[in-house]
Specification:
The complex is a heterodimer of chains A (666) and B (318). With 666 residues, chain A is mainly alpha-helical. Chain A contains 26 helices and eight strands. Classes of the chains: A mainly alpha (666), B mainly alpha (318).
Chain lengths: 666, 318
C-alpha cells in the first residue's frame, strides 16, 4: 500500500473515530477528545496531500461498486494533493480552535460528528479520480456543511433562512456539476477523469459541459450572481465552521474549475477564459464593495471571500485566455498566481474568521458598531486579526501581498500589441485588481480599526477578556502562517509549480520568488532586512528621546480643548464607510432614513434625530426576489389542488388510474 | 547586498531626510510670497521638527501601542521609499528589486499606519480623517497601478530602475504621448497620495475640509514629529520619482563620487522646480469638495487607461 492510499485510509478511520468520540464521550470531555481527533483528520489530510503533491500519481484506492460505470477511484494527483494539503491545514487549525470555542448547540454530538464528516469530505473531493466519487464526496460536503450551518437554529431565527438559502444554492450547484459531468461522460464514453480527458475541448459537448461545470463550481465558490448564500451562511454558522467553509470548502469550487481547464479539457477556446475573467472581475469588485460597507463582521468576511474567489477565477481565466493566444509564459504565471491566491486566502481567512469567532466568544457581538477597544483587552486576538487583516489588504510582508503581486505581474506581461482582445482585457483586469486592492485596504482598516482600537462602544466590549488557550494557540498558528508564507513565498511557489507542472517560476535566494519568464522577482526577506536597517536609527532616536522625556498618559490629549464625551461620539463602522457608500451610491443603493423630532416650542430646536440605514444586496433584491415571488405564487396556486377534501383526492386517484390505463393500452 | 547599491541607498536616504523638510519649507515660502505674506522661511520645518522632538509626548487613556508604533511605521515607510525609488541614481539592489508594485505597497503601509493612529485616538476627528483618507486611497489605487502598467510596457518590466534607465538612455521617450498621459495620471495620483490641493489642504484645520490634519490632531511631541517627517519624506520621494521620470537627466547609472554629486545636485534642482511649481499652482486652486474628488480621480484613471491602450495601438501602427 502506497503512502497516499494509506493516508486516505487513515483519514477515513480517524473520521470514524471522531464520530464515535463525539457520540460516546460525555459532554465534559467531548470537546477535547473530539476536537483533537478531528484535528488529527486534518493533519492526516495535510500529510496525504503533501505526499500526493510530492509523488504525483502515488497511490489509489478503488472502491468496489455495482454501477455500470468506470471504476470508482480515489487517486489524488499533484493538483488534488495541493488542495488536500490546504484543506487539511485549515481543518486542523479550526478543529483546535473549536475545542475552546464550542458551547451550547455547537458542542453537541451532531455538530462534532458533522464537523468530522465535513472535513473528510472537503479533503477527499480533490482525491477523486472519476466523476462518481467526486460527486459523492461533493454531496457529503454539502450535506455535512448544511447540518453545521443549522447548528444554532433553535436560538436564532435567521439561521433557518440562511440554511435554506444555502441548501437550495448548494443543490443547484450539485445539479449543474452533475449535468456537466454527464455531458462529458457521454462524450468521452466513461466516468473516469482519464476518459473525460479524451474529449476534444473545441467540441460542442465540451463547451456545454464547461459552461455547466463553471456555473456549478461558481455557485459553490460564492461567485456573483450566485453568491447569495455566502453572506448569510457565514454569520449563521459557528466561527470555526465559517473558517473551514470559507478557507477550504469554497476553494473546492476553484479546484473544480482548475480540474476542468487544466486536467480534463486543457487548451480550451479563448472565450472560456473570458467567461471566467468576467465572472471573477464582477465578483471581486462587487464582493469587496459590499464588504467595505458591511458592519456585521462575519458578513464582511463572507463578502470578502467572494472578492478573493473572484480574483482566483480571474487568474484562472487569464491563464486560459493567454494560453489560447499562445502567450504561455504569462499563462503559467497566472496559473501559479491562482494557486498562490488559494493558499494565501486560506491562511488569512482562517485567521480572520477565527479572530471574529474569538471576538464573538468574548463579547457576543458581531456588529462592528458595538465593538471597540478590544486591542487592549484581547491582545492575542488583536495581533492575530491584525496580521490577517494585513494579509487580506495585500500589504507586505504577508502572503496576500505575494499572491496579488504575482497576479499583477502575469497581467502586465500578458498583452501583446497584435492581440487586440488581450490588450484590452489585461488593462481592465489590472484596474479591477487595483480597485479591489484599494477597497480591501479600506475594508480591513475599518474592520481592525473599529473593532480593536479606540474606546469600547458597548458594555459587552468594555468587559471583554481574551479567549481560552486552545483558541489563542490556533489563532497564533494561523497568523504565523500568513507572515511566514509572506516572508518565504518560495515554498508556496515550489508547491504551486509542482502542482501544475510548470517551469517558468521558482524560488530564489532566501525563499523569494523568481518569475524568470516575465523577468520579475520578489524577495520579502530582503525587503524586511532593509526595513529593519532603516528602522534601527529611528528606534535609537525614539529610545533616547523616551529616556529623556517619557510618555505621559492624560485623559484626553487634545480633543479640541474639550473633555471626554460619550464613546458614541467616535466614528463607527457605518460612518467610516459613509463616504464610500455615497461614492458608490448607484451600485449599493443604501436605503437611508433620517427622522427629526422637533421641540414643541419651536421648529428650529431639535429634540431627537434618528438615523437608520439599510443595505440590501442589490443582486438579491433585483434577481432573486422576483423569482422567489413567482415560485411563491405558483405554490399558492398549486395549493388549490389540495383543499383537504377526501372526495377530491379520491377523484385524483381515479383520474390518475384512468390515465395510466390509457397510456398502457396505447 | 552589493556595495554600490548600498552606498547609493544611504546617500538617497540621507539627502532626502535633509532635503524634504526644506522642500516643504520652500513650498510654504513660495505660497507665502505669492500671497503677499512674509512667510516663515525655508528652515521652519526643521525648527518645528526640533521642537516636536524635544517636547513632552502625551497619550490619551485607552490608546494602545498603535499610537506609539504608528508614527514610527509612517517614518520607516517614508525612508524605505527613499531607498527603493531611483532619486539620485538608478542602481538597484540585486536581492531587493525596486518593483513599482512593492513601492506602492510600502507607501500604503504608511497610509494604513496613519489611519490607525487616527482611529486609535477615539475622537470624532480622527475617525473622520481616517475614513476620508481611506476612501481617497482606495480610489487612487486603480490610477496608480494602471499608470505603473503603462510605464512598464516599453521596458517590459515594472522595476523602477529599469524604467528610469531606459529614459536616461533615450530621453526622447519622455515626450511620447503614452509617457505623457501616464505621467499626468501619476501626477494626479501623487497629489492625492500626498494630500495636496485640490484633494486635501495641508494647511487647513477646518473640520469640513481636513483629511491628514484630522488624523494627527491627537498626536503630540515626537509622535507628531515622526508623523510629519514621514509625510514630508513621502512628498519628497514621490515628487522626486516624478522628477526622475519627467526629467531623467543627471541620474547616476553607476556609483562614483562624481556621478553621485551630479545626481544629488540634479535631484535638488528637480525638487525645487517641481515643488515650486506645485506650490505656485496651489495658490490658484481651491480645495475640491470631498465628493467631487472621485470625479478627479476617475479622470486621472481614464488618462492612465488611455496611456495603456495607446501604447499597444501605437506600437501596432508603428
Amino acid at each position: 500500500m502506497s503512502g497516499v492510499a494509506g493516508g486516505i485510509y487513515t483519514q477515513v478511520s480517524l473520521t470514524v473515530l471522531a464520530v464515535l468520540a463525539s457520540v460516546l464521550v460525555p459532554p465534559a470531555h467531548r470537546a477535547r477528545v473530539a476536537g483533537m481527533t478531528v484535528a488529527a483528520v486534518g493533519v492526516a489530510g495535510a500529510v496525504t496531500g503533501a505526499l500526493a503533491l510530492a509523488g504525483g500519481h502515488a497511490g489509489s484506492i478503488e472502491i468496489p461498486m455495482s454501477l455500470p460505470f468506470d471504476p470508482v477511484v480515489l487517486a489524488p494527483d499533484a493538483l488534488g494533493g495541493f488542495f488536500m494539503l490546504v484543506a487539511g491545514c485549515v481543518g486542523a487549525v479550526a478543529a483546535v480552535f473549536a475545542i475552546g470555542y464550542v458551547h451550547g448547540p455547537s458542542a453537541s454530538r451532531t455538530a462534532w460528528s458533522a464537523l468530522a464528516a465535513f472535513l473528510l469530505a472537503v479533503q477527499l473531493v480533490p482525491a477523486a479520480a472519476d466523476a462518481v466519487s467526486f460527486l459523492l464526496m461533493w454531496e457529503l460536503m454539502a450535506l455535512a456543511s448544511t447540518v453545521l450551518v443549522l447548528t444554532e437554529h433553535a436560538a436564532r431565527v435567521e439561521v433557518r433562512s440562511a440554511a435554506l438559502w444555502y441548501a437550495a444554492m448548494t443543490q443547484l450547484s450539485f445539479l449543474m456539476i452533475l449535468a456537466g459531468f454527464a455531458v462529458l461522460a457521454a462524450a468521452g464514453h466513461g466516468t473516469g477523469f482519464a476518459a473525460m480527458g479524451t474529449v476534444d475541448p473545441g467540441s460542442t459537448a465540451a463547451a456545454v459541459a464547461f459552461v455547466l461545470l463553471a456555473l456549478g463550481f461558481a455557485t459553490k465558490s460564492g461567485i456573483v450572481p450566485v453568491h447569495v448564500w455566502l453572506p448569510r451562511a457565514h454569520p449563521a454558522a459557528p466561527s470555526h465552521v465559517s473558517a473551514v467553509m470559507s478557507a477550504a470548502m469554497v476553494k473546492m469550487g476553484v479546484y473544480g474549475v482548475l480540474l476542468v481547464v487544466v486536467r480534463l479539457l486543457p487548451g480550451g477556446p479563448y472565450w472560456w477564459g473570458l467567461l471566467l475573467i468576467a465572472l471573477g472581475a464582477v465578483s471581486a469588485v462587487y464582493g469587496i464593495l459590499q464588504a467595505s460597507v458591511a458592519s456585521d463582521l462575519k458578513r464582511l468576511l463572507g463578502y470578502s471571500t467572494t472578492e478573493n474567489v473572484g480574483l482566483m477565477f480571474l487568474a484562472a481565466g487569464t491563464a486560459v485566455l493567454l494560453r489560447a493566444y499562445g502567450i504561455s509564459v504569462s499563462a503559467e504565471v497566472a496559473l501559479v498566481a491562482c494557486l498562490l491566491l488559494v493558499v494565501s486566502h486560506a491562511a488569512f481567512k482562517t485567521t480572520l474568521f477565527l479572530g471574529a469567532g474569538s471576538v464573538l466568544h468574548a463579547t457576543g457581538e458581531r456588529d462592528l458598531d458595538r465593538l471597540g477597544g478590544l486591542g487592549a483587552r484581547m491582545p492575542t486576538t488583536a495581533a492575530a486579526f491584525g496580521v490577517g487583516a494585513l494579509g487580506a489588504a495585500a500589504l507586505p510582508v504577508t502572503c496576500g501581498f505575494v499572491a496579488e503581486w504575482a497576479l499583477l505581474q502575469s497581467l502586465i506581461h500578458g498583452a501583446r500589441p497584435q492581440d487586440r482582445l488581450v490588450s484590452v482585457v489585461m488593462p481592465v483586469s489590472v484596474a479591477v485588481v487595483a480597485l479591489t486592492a484599494g477597497l480591501a485596504l479600506m475594508t480591513f482598516v475599518k474592520a481592525y480599526g473599529i473593532a480593536f482600537l479606540a474606546r469600547p462602544r458597548s458594555a459587552e466590549a468594555a468587559v471583554a477578556a481574551d479567549s481560552p488557550t486552545s483558541m489563542r494557540v490556533s489563532l497564533v498558528a494561523a497568523a504565523s502562517a500568513v507572515v511566514v508564507l509572506g516572508l518565504i513565498p518560495g515554498v508556496m511557489v515550489s508547491a504551486a509549480a509542482r502542482a501544475t507542472e510548470l517551469r517558468g517560476v521558482g524560488p530564489v535566494w532566501v525563499g523569494g520568488i523568481d518569475l524568470s519568464g516575465v523577468a520579475a522577482r520578489l524577495d520579502p526577506v530582503g525587503l524586511t532586512v532593509m526595513a529593519a536597517l532603516v528602522t534601527l536609527p529611528v528606534l535609537l532616536i525614539v529610545w533616547r528621546l523616551a529616556r529623556r522625556r517619557p510618555r505621559r498618559p492624560v485623559d484626553l490629549a487634545w480633543g479640541c480643548g474639550g473633555v471626554r464625551v460619550s464613546p458614541r461620539m467616535q466614528y463607527t463602522a457605518t460612518s467610516f464607510a459613509e463616504p464610500l457608500s455615497r461614492v458608490f451610491d448607484d451600485a449599493l443603493r443604501p436605503a437611508r432614513d433620517v427622522e427629526v423630532t422637533h421641540l414643541s416650542e419651536s421648529r428650529y430646536l431639535v429634540e431627537r434625530v434618528q438615523f437608520s440605514q439599510r443595505l440590501d444586496d442589490v443582486v438579491e433584491v433585483r434577481a432573486y426576489r422576483p423569482v422567489i415571488g413567482l415560485a411563491d405564487r405558483f405554490g399558492v396556486f398549486a395549493r388549490r389542488l389540495q383543499n383537504g377534501s377526501i372526495l377530491r383526492y379520491l377523484g385524483y386517484s381515479f383520474v390518475a388510474l384512468l390515465l395510466v390505463l390509457v397510456v398502457v393500452t396505447l | 547586498m552589493s556595495l554600490p547599491a548600498a552606498v547609493l541607498a544611504s546617500v538617497q536616504v540621507l539627502v532626502m531626510v535633509a532635503v524634504s523638510p526644506l522642500l516643504v519649507g520652500l513650498m510654504r515660502q513660495t505660497r507665502a510670497c505669492l500671497e503677499g505674506r512674509v512667510g516663515a522661511g525655508l528652515v521652519q520645518p526643521w525648527r518645528d521638527l526640533r521642537k516636536w522632538m524635544s517636547k513632552e509626548t502625551l497619550s490619551a487613556l485607552g490608546t494602545g501601542w498603535t499610537s506609539a508604533a504608528g508614527p514610527v511605521i509612517v517614518v520607516v515607510s517614508g525612508l524605505l521609499i527613499c531607498v527603493l525609488v531611483p532619486l539620485v541614481g538608478a542602481v538597484p539592489f540585486p536581492s531587493v528589486p525596486d518593483d513599482l508594485f512593492v513601492v506602492v505597497a510600502v507607501l500604503l503601509l504608511g497610509t494604513v499606519a496613519t489611519d490607525l493612529v487616527g482611529l486609535d485616538a477615539g475622537t470624532a476627528f480622527g475617525g473622520m480623517g481616517s475614513s476620508r483618507q481611506m476612501t481617497i486611497a482606495a480610489l487612487v489605487e486603480p490610477t496608480v497601478l494602471v499608470a505603473v502598467y503603462a510605464l512598464s510596457i516599453p521596458v517590459g518590466s515594472s522595476a523602477l530602475s529599469r524604467i528610469v534607465r531606459a529614459r536616461v538612455e533615450d530621453p526622447s521617450s519622455v515626450a511620447s504621448p503614452v509617457s505623457l498621459l501616464a505621467l499626468v495620471a501619476l501626477a494626479i495620483a501623487v497629489i492625492a497620495e500626498t494630500g495636496r490641493l485640490p484633494v486635501d489642504n495641508p494647511t487647513t484645520h477646518l473640520e469640513l475640509t481636513m483629511v491628514h490634519e484630522a488624523m494627527v490632531l491627537e498626536s503630540s511631541g515626537r509622535d507628531l514629529g515622526w508623523l510629519e517627517l514621514g509625510s514630508w519624506l513621502r512628498l519628497g520621494a514621490l515628487l522626486g520619482l516624478l522628477g526622475s521620470l519627467l526629467i531623467p537627466w543627471g541620474i547616476a547609472t553607476e556609483v562614483t563620487v562624481g556621478s553621485l554629486a551630479v545626481g544629488v545636485a540634479a535631484l535638488v534642482v528637480k525638487l525645487t522646480l517641481l515643488g515650486g511649481a506645485l506650490a505656485a499652482a496651489e495658490v490658484f486652486v481651491a480645495k475640491l469638495r470631498l465628493f467631487r474628488v472621485p470625479e478627479l480621480l476617475a479622470g486621472s484613471f481614464a488618462l492612465a487607461f488611455l496611456a495603456v491602450t495607446a501604447s499597444y495601438l501605437l506600437v501596432q501602427a508603428g
